[in-house]
Amino acid sequence: MIFTKQKIISYLLVFLFTLFVVLPVKAQIPFFPAPETLDAFPETPTWDLNKAEPCGRFLCSSVFFFSDLDFRRERIIVALPRDITKSTREVALEVEQRARFIQTVFRGIFNNMRTFIINNPVEERKNRNFWLITNEKPLHPATPIVEVGIENSQTVIYVTLNPKIGLVQQAILTVTEADARANTTTISQLAQTWRNKIRESFSNALWGLEMDIQRPFLRINVPITIIIITFSLITFIRILKKILKKWHRNLQKEFHEIYETLKVNPEENFSQNTTSKEVKSQSYQKTSKNLNLIQKIFTRGVNDTKEVIQESLSFSAKLFLVDFNQRRNFIKQKMNLIELISNLLFLNQITLILFCVAVILVTFRDTRFLFNLFFTQSILLPLIWIAMVLTDKIIDFWIDNLLDDWAKAKQEINPNSNRPILRVNTYSPALRGATTIFFNVIGIFLTLAVIGISPSILASAGALAVVFAFLSRNLFDDMLNGILILTTDRYALGDVIEINGFMGCVETMNLYITALRNLDGQLIIIPNGKISTVVNMTKNWSQVNFTIEVAWNSELQKTMNILQEVADQMYQEKDWKDKMITSADILGIEKIAHDGITIRLIIKTQPSEQWRVGREYRWRVKKAFDKAGISLGIPQTVIWHKDN
C-alpha cells in the first residue's frame, strides 16, 4: 500500500511538472479569453460518445443504444453537412443533439414496453448459458415491428402501432442525404441497415429485461465474482511486491555497506581502519586471482611463503576497487531488475482494476455503451506505461553499463584512486532520475492523447501555469547548476566539502539539492542554485598541513630531522603506506615570534586519508619530542624598569 501511494504521488508530481513545462507554451494570454474561431469544435468531453467528429465534408456523431456492445455491431452514424452560414461549433452541437435525441426516443419506446414484458414474461425458462453475451439470441417475441417509410417527403424509420404492448406509431429517426453520403451508401440501403440495427437493439434490450425477471441475481453475481477474483489477484500481487521490496531493502543495505568503505569518515580511528582493511582483504581473497596466489604459496614452498603473502596483500590492496566495482555492478543489476518487476506489478494492478470496471460496465444495460471506450483505454493506457517503464529501465541499464565501462577505464589509469567509483555513484542516480522524469512526461502526454484532452483545454489553464512557474522559478536555476556540478565534477558522493560556510560529507545529491552531513550528525540541505564556491578536501588526493611551534632554545636541525624521521617511519609501514602518497616535505621555518619558532611541513595522502594520517603523525611526534627533550614554544615577556 505504501509503495502504491508513493507511485501515485510520484505520477502526480510528474503531471504537475508536465503542466509547468508545457502550459506556458500552449497557453494564450492568461487573463483574456481566447477568441472563438469558425473551425473550433465544442468543448464536449471525450468520454461523451456522441462527441462530433469530422468525416469528410460532414460532421458525424455516433448513436449508442444502451443494450448494445459497439465492438460487435455496426454503429448508427448520423451526419450534417458543413454550412457556410453556421460555424463548425454550431453544426457540431446540432449533430450531437440529433444523436442524443435518437437515443432518447429509443429509451422512451423501450420504457413503454417494460410494463408489458414484466407482466407477460416468456414462459420458457432459459438456461444459464443462453444469457451469455457471446451467444447469439433470436428476436424476442415482443420485439416491436420496425419499418421504413416516407414522411414529409423524407425517409424515416419508425415503430408501428401495437396497442397490446403499449406502443403507438412513432418515428425514431430520419435518414437524410447527408447520412447516406457520410456512410458511402444510398438512402434506401442505409435505411434498411439502420432498421435491422434498431430491431436487434430492441430485441437485446428485451432479452436483458427477460433475464432480470427469470434470473434476478445473475446480473449481480457477475460483478461480485469479478470483484472477488480481482481482489484476490491484487492481494497476491501485493504479497509479491512486499517480498520484492524486502529483497530490495536488503540489496540497498548491502550496497550501502560496501560503499561506506570508500566514503569519507574523518572521525574514523585506526582500529576501525584496520578492521575495514581486513574486510577488504577477506573480500578480495574470494576472487580468482587470490586463489591463484594461494595455489602459488603451495607450489613455491614454505621458504617463499613470506614473500608471496606480502605480494598478495599489496596486490589485493591495488585491486580492491576493481572487486568492489564488480560487486556493486552485480547488486545494481539486481536492484534494477527488482524495480522493473515492481513497476510492472503496479501497472498490472491498475490493469486488473480497469478490467474489473469494464466487466461491470458491460454487465448492466445502462452503462454497456461505455464498454467499448473504457475497454480500449484500459488496454492502451497500461500498454503505454508498460512501454515507458521498460524503456526507462533499459535506458537505466545502458547508463549503468556506460558508467561502469568509464569507471573501469579510469581505474586502470589510477588503480589506487576511488574517484571513478564515487563519480559513478553520483552520476547514476541523477541521470536515472532525469530519464525517469522524461519518460513519465512522455507517458502523461500519451495518456492525455488517449483520453482525448485537447490542447485547448490545457491552454485554458495558462494562468495557473504562469503562477506555478513564477513560484517555481528557482527550480530551473537549481537544475542547471546541478547539471554543471555533475559535468565539471566539482564534488561527488562521499566527498568532504565546504559550501557557503557549511562543511560536511556529501550524503545525497541530485539535480536540485545537495545534502551534507556534518560531524554533529546534522543534515544540511543546500539548493544547487545557491552553490557558487566549493572547497573540496578529498578530490583526487589530500594533504596534511602540519605546523608546530618549538621553543627558542631548541636545536632546529635536530627538530626537523625528527619530524622527517617520524614521517619516513610511517611511510615505511604497510598499514600507512597505502594511505600516504609521499613522506613528509619539510617546508622549513614558517614564523619566528616571541612565543617560539613555527615549522611547517606537508604530507600528501590518498583522498580522505589526511585526517587519519595527521592524527597518527601528531601522536608519534609528541612521543618523539618527549624522548628527545624538545619542548614546545613558551611565550616570553621582557620587562623594562626605569629609575627616576
Characterize the structure shown.
The chain has helices at residues 2-26, 88-119, 177-182, 187-214, 218-260, 270-284, 288-300, 305-363, 371-413, 419-451, 455-459, 462-471, 473-488, 556-572, 574-577, 610-628; strands at residues 53-55, 58-63, 76-81, 146-151, 154-159, 170-175, 496-499, 502-509, 513-517, 523-527, 534-536, 542-550, 585-593, 596-605. The protein has a five-stranded antiparallel sheet with strand order 10-9-8-7-11. It has a three-stranded antiparallel sheet with strand order 1-2-3. A three-stranded antiparallel sheet has the order 4-5-6. It is an alpha+beta fold and 644 residues long. The model is unreliable at 1-5, 16-38 and 263-321 (pLDDT under 50). Helix 1 packs across helix 10 (419-451).
Shape: elongated
Strand order of the largest sheet: 10-9-8-7-11
Radius of gyration, in angstroms, nearest whole number: 40 Å
Biggest sheet features: 5 strands, antiparallel
Poorly predicted runs: 1-5, 16-38, 263-321
The portion of residues assigned to helices is 55-70%
The span between the termini is: 94 Å
Summing up helix and strand content along with how strands pair, one would put the structural category as alpha+beta
Can you give the mean pLDDT? 75
Query: What string, H for helix and E for strand, traces the elements in order?
Result: HEEEHEEEHHHHHHHHHHHEEEEEEHHEEH
| Strands, count | 14
- Quickly count the helices: 16
Percent strand: 5-15%
